[in-house]
Amino acid sequence: xxxxxxxxxxxxxxxxxxxxxxxxxxxxxxxxxxxxxxxxxxxxxxxxxxxxxxxxxxxxxxxxxxxxxxxxxxxxxxxxxxxxxxxxxxxxxxxxxxxxxxxxxxxxxxxxxxxxxxxxxxxxxxxxxxxxxxxxxxxxxxxxxxxxxxxxxxxxxxxxxxxxxxxxxxxxxxxxxxxxxxxxxxxxxxxxxxxxxxxxxxxxxxxxxxxxxxxxxxxxxxxxxxxxxxxxxxxxxxxxxxxxxxxxxxxxx
Length: 253
Hints:
Elements: H1 9-15, E1 26-29, E2 38-42, H2 53-76, E3 91-94, H3 116-120, H4 123-127, H5 130-140, H6 143-146, H7 166-176, E4 181-184, H8 202-216, E5 236-237, H9 239-246
Parallel strand pairs: 3-4, 4-5
Antiparallel strand pairs: 1-2
Helix pairs in contact: 2-5
């Protein structure tokens, strides 16, 4: 609406962070003759998506198109004597909920038939969960999305029988960036439970700090694809992998 084009940043932030029962919902009125008419009522965006992953998943196709065009041009038009630089997207998810440790070899039993209808009715929430959105991002950012192998051509511009160097580029990029999806979440271990609140007590901060230190240790790095570590799902890295990537493979500082 034109009359709200210059809305203050603080006002916009307050409208997007309203918690019913704690704070009133945000109300927006119209413009001109409708200035006294309520046209919108807003609450915190976390009620629909508490992770921000839905926004990222929505942006991913457009970003991959731009990155793919850049990488394709870099591969097909290399500069003499200059290395080819590729852009490899990495998704980092910082979660504040502990990740339960899976039990090896245990397969969940099928639920009883009377429970099937109420369980399947929750499918909408499951499809918008962080796990589902991370799966979407994982599929949207595979190497086939950010570097599409063009057919090899000769100097006359015709297709050549010579193999395109693109698969080798994929391999080299995968060696430099082993994990494109990195999930940093607290592990479950005996400790003081972190209470819900704006200010965390000392014991909770100590527990969180020790958990971060443990995840940052170089020994916590995933070793795909031969690793069967509990907290290393296939293709997913951890905090130590992120630090190793940032530090050029040297591991945690």
